[in-house]
Amino acid sequence: MSAFNSIYPQTTLKSGSLMESLLQPLRQQLDSIEIRDAELARALCKLIPSQCPFARDIQILGRTLFRIPPLCKINPLYEQLMGLRLRSLVYLADVCGEDVTPYCY
To answer: How many Å apart are CA 39 and CA 88, to the nearest integer?
Structure first.
């Protein structure tokens, strides 16, 4: 038990809990978006990538300076964006009858 917790036992320190509580309304808003327009669905399918971009190693003269993790690992809204993209694809395929294969790569 840390000294802080022994002095203030009612206080719990959770890493990311503040960030989680700040992001929760935005997550709920993204999850609640209904796709009702083909143009919006097409735009979302073009803007939101279909795959998590690969990690990159930044190298100079053969030495790795630093590593950039896959963007999906550091994006706290990744799951909501993928859900929004999926709803857009389903709308285009089921409601509009479009072929969505151009948006899958």
So the answer is: 10
